Amino acid sequence: MSRYALDRIDVEMLDLLRADGRTPFTAVAQAVGLSPDAVRARYARLVGDGVVRVIGLVHPKSLGYNRRASVWLTYHGNTDTLAKQVRDLQNIAFMTETLSRRNVLLEVVGRDDAEVADFVTATFRSLPEVCAVEISSMLEIVKWQTQARRGSAAAAAPTADLDETETALLRVLIHNPRANYRDLAEQLGEPYWWVRRRTQALFAEGIISVAVMVDRLSTEPTLIANVELRLHGPEAASALRAIAAMDEVALLTVNSGHIDAVCEVTCADDGHLARLGFAIRAVPGVADVRIIPYVRTLILPMPWSIDPDPAWR
């Protein structure tokens, strides 16, 4: 796969947006030495090419999402076509093509197991290209580090104080945290003054912040893989803690279904990934390991503002 080249100005722009994702394009332009129109064009190109996603970082429970699940598809078709079909569906938080018989992996969110199951059935089971579907719920979070959380403060706690209109505003902001107040007011059908005041409050209270997600598979010489774990015996819990301590492991969850836990790992090359697999297999309490490399990102992930469950600290 050819690498997507980010030049110096692209990197400087993204660094500025990471520091404050609502920085006006005029300020970004002044900092990087371009015109505002040139900055807008670069931004539109990166987002349009699917390489960058500027997104609101929230706790999923703030949106009423109490369940997250990994969904595997055995898909006989063009994965780009599938991605275009489902890209705008809010229940999909991540989608990647993998090097496996089950060749598409998604993260799906919902209020509960029933909503997740209904969404997967309505969206995927009727597609003729989908030959098999597997769902595994995330039961506990052992480790959760994303691009958006590097060097950040503790995750924002979910809030149960948002009313229906405020939650609708938050749902719009997570997909377009740079939206201006007039567009938000028009989209929600609410007064400009209310949208402006409440949007500012949501950011000031830390209920939402802005995250810049970059497709590392297409822009960096790196390997990312999903690792499925089967555990056994009284050492299972200590095995999870040992795996969570590995630098290559970004995410680690305890799951339902035919596997006990899933982690996402990042490695420099094939040899690094192979050695990591052997290191995980050597951990007491690990019965089996399956490594499934990501081929390419189809929908960049929602980073979520989540702290690991206290039981694993």
Describe the structure.
By secondary structure, the chain is α+β, with helices and mostly antiparallel strands. Among the domains are: 8-49, Arc Repressor Mutant, subunit A; 142-151 and 219-295, Lrp/AsnC effector binding domain/regulation of amino acid metabolism (RAM) domain (Alpha-Beta Plaits), CATH 3.30.70; 160-206, Arc Repressor Mutant, subunit A. 36% of the residues lie in helices and 28% in strands. The protein is built from 11 helices and 10 strands. It has helices spanning 8-19, 25-32, 36-48, 79-86, 113-125, 164-175, 181-188, 192-204, 216-219, 236-244, 270-281; strands spanning 52-57, 67-75, 92-98, 104-110, 130-144, 209-214, 223-231, 249-255, 261-267, 286-299. Strands 2-4-3-10-7-9-8-5 form an 8-stranded antiparallel barrel, surrounded by 4 helices. Strands 1-6 form a two-stranded antiparallel ribbon. Helix 1 (8-19) packs across helix 2 (25-32), helix 2 packs across helix 3 (36-48) and helix 7 (181-188) crosses helix 8 (192-204). It is globular, with a radius of gyration of 20 Å. Mean pLDDT is 91; it is low at 150-154.
